[in-house]
Amino acid sequence: MRKIIHIDMDCFYAAIEERENPELRGKPVGVGGGSRRGVLTTANYEARKYGCRSAMPVFKARELCPHLILVPVRFDLYRAESARIRAIFGRFTEKIEPLSLDEAYLDVSHLHSSGAAIAREIRAQIREETGLTASAGIGPNKLIAKIASDWNKPDGQHEVRAEDVEDFMSALPVGRLWGIGPKMRGKLEAMGIRTCGELRAMDKIDLARRFGTWGLELHALARGEDDREVSIDRIRKSVSCEHTFTENILTLEALRPQLLAMIDEVREDVERRHADRVIRSLVVKMKFADFTRTTAERAHPELDAGVYAELLEEAWKRGANRPVRLLGAGVRFRDPDDGIQPELFDSAGL
Ligand SMILES: [Mg+2]
Questions:
Q1: Domain that residue 269 falls in
Q2: pLDDT tens across 67-109, in order?
């Protein structure tokens, strides 16, 4: 029987800013704006009362809460804090899977104490050493642990024992399962399915017929079954966007606007979901009509259309005028654990 803990820091960035500047306490605070093209990265609980949310445009947040205090993001600080918390996890287990700076799965199956006792101890150490609060979910797998960490948030925890999984899942809205977005939720709703309990009652074969392998996965998820390991290197290494053209592209000039559109898409993805990551390099990938391929890459810390244009040219030249059937653009991230020593990469000029 596995014991998995999902730790989720409470309003991590905002909580750090409040700790650094106690005058912010009890006031609505949003972290973001500025270089993040005017989007909130985090809102504290006070701001959430007004409806402010992460990923919300700043102008919208200000409409909802005119006295919102906006502070700029300081990812170096958040990364350092995240490393301290990671070190606390390391006292309990080596099996740590970070999902972002403020969230991680821990596999503590090897420890004798109950999962709940371990989670309580981890949260106490985090609070004592960083002054920040964390919430935890404890369960027999990652799916259950992740859902449970939301149960008593903030500064709380919830354990679901294996024998209670069925009850726990029954009333859970299907939208809480991963992979179920608004579209899928709509499809299920049309079938009269809103909760995991209702989904569980569906015939496995029928789900497979309607949704293919995803249907089989749904069948398992609805039962709270999830056998994925806590994996220490699951963290995303890159983000990219690529496009195969219906007709091969014959000139460098015709590739340029395609590239610009891709950079926009990559930028959006990075800002929305990976704003906490440090970009290591920019990449342009090309596949030619004869199916040969090439990749041009340069170390650069931010999405820069000029650098991309040069990489495009470099890749194009390697093709020696061969028509292009696929173009891709992306970024490679620095390993989050490298971020513990920011001065190291500052001086390397990367
Ligand atoms: Mg969090």
A1: 238-348
A2: 999 999 898 899 899 999 999 999 999 999 988 889 999 999 9
Domain harbouring 207, CATH code: 1.10.150.20
pLDDT value at residue 350: 31
Q: How many domains does the chain have?
A: 2
Q: What separation in Å is there between the alpha carbon of 312 and the centre of ligand 1?
A: 38
Query: Cα of 324 to ligand 1 centre, how many Å?
Result: 43
- Let me know if 166 is a catalytic residue: no
Distance 240 CA to ligand 1 centre (A): 25
Question: Mean pLDDT over all residues of the chain?
Answer: 90
CA of 102 to the centre of ligand 1 (A): 5
pLDDT at 295: 94
* CA 12 to ligand 1 centroid distance, Å: 6
What ranges make up the beta strands (E) of the chain? 4-9, 29-32, 40-43, 69-71, 96-100, 103-107, 134-139, 157-159, 238-249, 279-288, 293-299, 324-333
Asked whether 140 and 2 are in contact (CB, 8 A), the reply is yes
- Domain match, 276 and 330 both: yes
Q: Which of 103, 198, 229, 297 is catalytic?
A: 103
Residues 238-244, mean pLDDT to the nearest whole number = 90
**Pairing verdict, β 324-333 and 293-299:** unpaired
Q: Do 215 and 262 have their domain in common?
A: no
What DSSP string describes 275-326? TTSPEEEEEEEEEETTS-EEEEEEE-SS--HHHHHHHHHHHHHHTTT--EEE
Residue 263, domain member (yes or no): yes
